[in-house]
Amino acid sequence: MSKRSACSEKGGRAAANGHASQNGTQSDAGGKLQEDEDDGKVGLGKKVTLLRGISIIIGTIIGAGIFISPKGILKHSGSVGMSLIVWIACGVLSLFGALSYAELGTCIKKSGGHYTYIMEAFGPQMAFIRLWVDLIAIRPAGMAVISLAFGQYILEPLFMPCNIPPIAVKLATGIGITSVMYLNSMSVTWTARIQIFLTFSKLLAIGIIIVPGLYQLFKGETKNFENAFEMSNVKISGMPLAFYSGMYAYAGWFYLNFVTEEVDNPERTVPLAICISMAIVTSCFVLTNVAYYTVMSAEELLTSEAVAVTFAEKLMGNFSIVVPVFVALSCYGSMNGCLFALSRMFYVASREGQLPEVLSMIHIHRHTPLPAVLILYPMTMLQLFVGDLYSLLNFMSFLRWLFIGVVVLGLIYLRYTKPDLPRPFKVPLFIPVVFCLTCFFMVFLSLYSDPVNTGIGFAISLTGIPAYYIFFYFSHRPKWLQRGLDSFNRTLQILLMVIPAEH
Question: 102-113: per-residue pLDDT in tens?
Fold first, then answer.
């Protein structure tokens, strides 16, 4: 295990004790003070209620894709009817994965999501490799891509019908990223409240599409559903790619597990929030596609650059100008939900000794995990302005399903190695087995369809092995490295005004 900084630890605990003795209070997650006459502990409060948990899951799953280009499934499935079946099937498979995570979240009551579950099942080395890949590549690139969509669509109403200058998009994106970081740094309570608002706004946007679309359907606009299961264009070889697109559309159901320690009554809230969220998201995705088909043929949908805009122009005329605004809000909700959850993974990794100690500290006034929130900021901004984001995501795409499959495999493994582990919520064994096989099938599909990019991504992930031994495994670090880490922790602790959380 890595050495903790002795000076930082002592100074932090002294600050924590001084803070508690002066105020006689304990902080909650929103920056307010909460009476705690017993022990004056400082830490993150349990402020994620059922509604907030639902907003985190729905808010991160529903991004820009359903509004802009939900055509990957139609393209590979070959017909309208088959595309709707794939949407439903992917929703059910995603529910299987979400239920598996619900069991893990109720029996391992630690924040951190994938990282924590891999740590518990397979040990620190495998967990560190997952953490390493997330930190250096996947999360900054993913955050930058969804932020670029925000920058594009928030400016579109101002530049219509002209093209938006690329530098303007990047500047708006940078402002969006900075505002999300600031919000998550200031207050967990306000972060959760704004996430609820953004979730309702994107559900309103989907409602604006579904209601007129179903009205058209009930009026008899069914010509695009005639011969819905026409098999002439259906190719068996394309179905795996259709499922691949569908599973990506539903990705995000696991984010509540990143904040388990902050969930109020997790034994009840986590499974309930997951089930309600997946039912809402699956219904929204399927009904939105049905609505699109009432106005557009399959050919029109495939050629449209922004499906929701085309739909709105056909049914609502000038009102279609609000669609980019709703898309931007939807992207902002995904950015906010992702950052809220991911910061807890870095917070937990620091607590486990696999990241610098300062990342597991809490701001003395705001009571947010400020360093863990800010760690993604420089990497995301760097990749936004100088990185090749889409190539990086191509390298890393298969790793997401590989590690999710490993997590669910860990659930099955823990059933046999730790049968006495309390499981307040337990799923039938076939659910994790089916989902685990789905994940590994998608990994195999990536290897088959794009072996070069997949191989590069795998090689990048292997750099986590030497990093693990250099930064974590060896207990006797060179003195210069240990002094540097201690100085880094102390300096950031003073600059950011943070102290260790007490558990």
Answer: 999 999 988 888
